[in-house]
Each structure stands twice: as C-alpha cells, then as structure tokens.
C-alpha cells in the first residue's frame, strides 16, 4: 500500500506536468477572454482590446489595412483557440489531485481531522490554480506568469496534497492493521491476507484512475505546446504588420 500511495504521488507531481519538459512558455501578459472581446492586460498600461472587427491600443481604435486586418484576425483567432485550452488544462490538472485524495479518503476511512487537513490542502491548491487560471461559462482569465512560476507553485501545491494524503493514509493503514491484529475473525494469517488484498485493491484503483487522467493531461499538454508555437508565429506576423502591437508580446518561448 505504501508503494501504491507513493506511485500516486509520483504520477501527480511529475506526469501531470511532464509536458513542460517539451516546451517552455511564459505568458508575459494577462488575458481576459469573453465571446465578444479579448483584453491583453499589461501592468501600468491600458489593455489592448480586441473585438470582432476593431483593435484598440492605448485606448484608441486603429485603422487597419486589408493585410493588417488579416494578420489581426488570425492572431485574434489564435488567442481564442489557445487560452481556453490552457485554462482547461490547468483546471483539470488540479482535478487529478482531487481525484486521488478523494480515493484515499474513501478507501482508508480517514478520520474527520485528517479529512479536514486534506481538504485544506486541496483548497490551497485550488487557490493557486485560480490565481493564474479561471473560467466561468464562456469567460476565461489567464494571468501573466514568467520563469515557470505557475508550474512551480502548482507542483508545490500538488506535492503538499500528496504528502498529506500519504501521511493521513499511512496513519489509517496502521489503525486498520491494529484492528486486524485484534480481530477474532479467522486465523491471523487469513486476517493478514485479507488486509493485504484490500490494500492492494485500493492502491491499484487509485493508481489506475490517476494514471489515466495524468496521461490524458500530458497528451493535451503536448497539443497546447504546439498551439503556443503556432500562436507565437501569428503574434510575430501581427507585430510585423501592425507596429503599434510590437510593445505587447503575449508569449515568450
């Protein structure tokens, strides 16, 4: 059982974020995205505002040529495709951690104090995620983050949840082991065998659930990396066509 819990920890703390080994992307501006508008958020500057057919820089609408309009529309569409994928990926990565913790709580009958401690860790993890990524219906928010700071904070949060899960889980295991020792049902060997099978079954269930989710997230992470590279090209072309945008770089790759 101990190995199963630590295998789960490894899956959460490494596989979930494995796509970061394939590409390195920093968001140098925040983004607010709604069905009708995109805002690129920059500290101490007016946001760049994008609507279906108008581009506003420093609060003024720009008159765009046909070529500029084409570059603008392609860039805007790239942002609309990229941002929801990134936000959903971050939200789902946190969900993976929550699934594992819920399975530990359910399988090990962790006491109320232990459950509260795990729930606090989960809440801190969700707060980290929401600090950078959030969504409500068709509205998405993506905060600026540089030098892998979100990846580091998220991984620390996941590690904290996993460590608490392991600590509380092992405490519950020892409690159940004590009950097995003192039980009068069957021989000692039979009680130990039943206990071992229960732990093995629960460990396998946790690992299978987390592993499938982690693999899916890693695959989606690879796709997000490809999207980031494509969006970066669209951004460079928009900068080339529209000089007023050159001081506003969304991606750093």
From TrEMBL:
Coiled-coil region(s): 111-138
Keywords for the protein's UniProt record, in alphabetical order: Coiled coil, Signal
Signal peptide: 1-18
Any Pfam family the entry gives: DUF2884
Entry protein name: DUF2884 family protein
Organism: Neiella marina
